[in-house]
Fold this protein.
Amino acid sequence: MAILQNGPNGPIVGKFGSVSAYLLNGQNIIRGGKKKRTSPPSEAELLNREKQKVAGKFAAWNKRILEFGYQPLAKKGSRVGAFQLAQRHIFKETLELDAENKPFINPEKLSLFSGPLTPLANCQVSLDGDRIDLSWTVDDQYKSSIYKINLGLIGFDTESHLRTSIAKVNQGSCALQFEEISRKTGDLHVYVSVWDTLEGDFSNSIYCGVI
């Protein structure tokens, strides 16, 4: 049963006949019913399903980080939000096939943060006990103290972490104490981004390597 919310001018929610209606990011979406398929899937379709599975699992595991990292690109009122934009990037731009034709996410192609600002250059990272050391080349356009560094640590076989505003971009380097990171159970891939803390914009993230 479908419900007409807020009177005759309101959105429709629910199922009526062969179609279903729901709200997505403030828009009323109506979809037709699915037809039952009788033919078997092709090899290309099976591979596409595997890609969707790999991309979907990774995106779901890192949802809160991706929602934060893609918020500058999510237009207000659009039915495509930050998380959907991140999912699209992961599926279209990061997936590759291994020697057994199995899809995997190439961490070097992953953009954890996305936005219009100029990315950092010459980023270096190292781990010393429970301290992460970062360095980068200072860009003259980031002399103001409003520009900060965001750090993402992504684990493909362990948990991920997000740290925001860890340093001013004009510092050129920083050291971040991270309790018990030296006892992590797997590799962590390091991504850094510029954050304009006044306007809210990000730069695309830079992949710094593995710790």
Summary: The first helix runs from residue 43 to 61. The first strand starts at residue 3 and ends at 4. Helices lie at 43-61, 63-69, 82-94.
